[in-house]
Amino acid sequence: MEVALARTPLYDWHVARDARMVDFAGWSMPVQYSSIGAEHKATRNAVGVFDISHMGRLRFDGKGAAEFLDRLLTRRVVGLGQGLIRYSLVTNDAGGILDDVLVYHQADHDGDPFHLLVVNASNRAKIVDWVEQHSTEANDVTFRDQTVETAMIAVQGPRALSALQPLVDVQLGDMQYYTGQAAQIAGHVGIVSRTGYTGEDGCELIVSAESAGDVVERLFAEGEAFGIQPAGLGARDTLRLEAAMPLYGHELSEAIDPFQAGLGFAVHLKDRDFIGAAALRELKARPNRLRRIGLELSNKRVPREHYPVLANEEAVGEITSGTFSPTLERPIAMAYVQPNAAELGAELTVDIRGRAEAARVVPLPFYKRDRD
Amino acid sequence: MNPDELLFAETHEWAKVDDENGAKVATVGISAFAVEQLTDLVYMELPSVGTSVEAGREFGEVESVKAVSPLYSPVTGEIIDVNSSLPDSLETLNADPYDAGWIIKVKLTDETSLAKLLDYAAYQKQCAEEG
Question: Which residues of B touch A (CB under 8 A)?
Answer without folding.
Answer: 39-40, 42-43, 45, 61, 63-68
